[in-house]
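Usage

Read records sequentially. Each one opens with the input sequence:
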Amino acid sequence: MPERNHCLCWLAILLLVFPFVPACRNGSPESESGRITLVLGAYTTPREAYGRSIIPAFQRYWKNKTGQEVEFRQSYQGSGAQARSVIGGFEADVIALSLAGDVEKVVKAGLIKHDWQQKPHQGMVSTSIVVLAVRPGNPKQIRDWPDLARSGLNVLTPDPRTSGGAMWNICAMYGAALRGYAGVEKDKPEAGADFLKAVFRNVAIMDKGARESITNFEKGIGDAAITYENEVLVGRAAGQKYDYAIPRSTILIENPAALVDTYVDKHGVRPVAEAFLEFLWSKESQRAFAEHGLRSVDTDIAREFEAKYPAVQDLWTIGFLGGWPRVIQDIFGPAGVYTRAYQGLHGDR
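and closes with the structure output:
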């Protein structure tokens, strides 16, 4: 009799424990309801495109295809800060960052183990340009890069230590100076450095991300904000009253996305994560990016929205400055052009 009671005791324990073991399908952990969770770590600018359009569309697509529901945990912060967060232990399955250099930091940390640039468009899912947000009617007549160096202006741009958008802004200014569009001598790095110093003399606030910077501008701070075209278009669609100027020469911002192999495999979500990444190049996602202010990498969708996105007189890529590895060293490194210009104004802060 005691032996029978002992067996019944173990049976009760097993019944208590095993209902809580998650079911699995194709190696993907699910809840009892058949849901699976993906973690997205992104930079701040495309929050609306992902949250309002792309993620709901993918959830419908995946449900129709597999019968499985996908839940998303979403994190948005400055691109550089997001990359450091992922490296530091934030277990994002998919990252969508502002620039390739930030993805490469995750690669160097050993978390991305494949060649992420073998995807369509070398891993880029959207593009934009650097523009100048100005007050309604442009009362200070800020139309191009040289105007930002005028004394007495208050200019906003984020901090390149945390923001990929800030790095794009600085590259746009410096590159335009080298190309002869900033009111200084063409092809002269020192002249370009002097131009950066003249602009940053007018910068008092450097927020941690592009979204925080444009939010401050919307609160009435500053005469102009150097920002993504997307940030201006999203703000205006939400009822904000400001204008923007497209400089004659500006950089094509290219935004990458990639799977983080270590975390995808740890979570057992590779099939759905790969499907979500591929979905970012679908017509539906590319149209969503365009509807939320980002320029599409799909030529058909770009043609569909060409009236919304004016052409740029002198549009160039990061390749003009040597690519991100060289830019990170030559512009943002300890002896870089921006670093020296900033230290010349503020010391080693």
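Summary fields computed downstream for this record:
- Residues 1-28 have pLDDT under 50 and may be disordered.
- The two ends are 78 Å apart (CA to CA).
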